[in-house]
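Protein: LysR family transcriptional regulator
Species: Paenirhodobacter ferrireducens
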Amino acid sequence: MFGFRDIEIIRAIVRHGGFRAASDATGLAQSAISRRVHHLEDRMKITIFERDGRGVRLSAAGRRFCEEAELLVAQRDRILGELTQGQMAGVVRLGVAETITHTLLPRLLTALRARHPLLRFEISVDTSDQMAHELSADGLDVAIMLRDEAPRGMVLTALPPVSLGWFCSPAHFTLPRPAGIDDLAALPIVSFPKTTIPHRRVLDLLTPVRRKVAEVHGSASLATVLHLVAQGFGIGTIPHDIVASWPDAGIEEIEVTPEARLPDLEFAICYMPERNEEIGRELTRAAVAASVV
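Structure follows.
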């Protein structure tokens, strides 16, 4: 409809008091300025300048146009200033596994905001397999996900492992100390979503020693897992850090035999170097620093 060059010409006419003075100030021919204004008025279906024997003056619509145009120019100048001052600015599309939202993420974003106040974050909480797809399809800039799910070609930096435990509500279940694989597999189990590596590991751990496949339910929400376990729906596989952050959940860890212990979750921060190298390096540095507590 109109561009910044149109705005600049209108501002010059207003500032210098007419078309001829604007021509002298801008170096444009007066006829070129007149045509530009005429074409702009035609496109917008408004009258910007009212003409009389003494010259031109802004119409009511013209005054509104100039007021709004000043805001656009100020916004343009602000954006250009931010992008040319050597500061990181813009929107970062960050994907995280839900475990990370309860542990590393708050420290990471707080540190980044302090160093780069012009950055804005769009945070997606998803499973690692889905984040792998989004990274490859340029739907995410950076992701913190299970290391074994990272697609090829990523710059990948390992983060400290997250330990898992078996948990139950003591008001609903009483298990031997220590509980073995048969004891655990005999009960309903709430774990990670069925498409994920942790879910498959639970099945691989429990199923081979039994004729019947273990009853393992999947949930992408750790809060849901906590509530289900607390209400006695079943026992659950939950990161220790998550349970520690919910001290009133009313659940406790099940002491298990060595063969029933769950492997740690191995997370990594990943990005595609050809698309997001600068912000990827900065988020990696911040994530590594934030993981040291």
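Remarks: The two ends are 54 Å apart (CA to CA).
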